[in-house]
Amino acid sequence: MSIVCDGFQYLLSLFELDVLQLDVLEFSRDRKMMSILCSRNQLHVLFSKGAPESIISKCTTILCNGDGSVMPLTADIRAELDSKFNRLGFIIYHVICIYTLCFV
After folding, report:
1. How far is Cα 25 from Cα 1, in angstroms, rounded to an integer?
2. Is 76 a domain residue?
3. Which domain holds residue 96?
4. Is 1 a domain residue?
5. pTM (2 decimals)?
6. What pLDDT sits at residue 5?
7. Residue 104: what pLDDT?
8. What whole-number distance in Å separates Cα of residue 63 and Cα of residue 4?
9. Is the dihedral of CA 85, 60, 29, 11 positive or negative?
10. Of 7, 2, 1, which is closest to residue 62 (Cα–Cα)?
11. Residue 87 maps to which CATH number?
12. Count of CB atoms situated within 10 Å of the CB of 35
């Protein structure tokens, strides 16, 4: 199986909108991530970035296809992502992940 995700482009497009930053949770060694709570049109979004193992463990879906479509984060996809993160880390790339949580 191969994962082709252009979700990052979709995520970047969100930043071009008028977004109000409400709060910041600075990076913590315990959490291995940092988070920013934003608001736009009564929708609150928590953006977090950090170590892949910290981010992926909190996710149940994955953002794909550049149009914002979402698919379940299955055990097979988790294993494939873990393998890719390990390969990238082995060749000395710094790997981070980004996730969002939306709520009203």
Report:
1. 35
2. yes
3. 7-103
4. no
5. 0.65
6. 44
7. 55
8. 10
9. positive
10. 7
11. 3.40.1110.10
12. 19
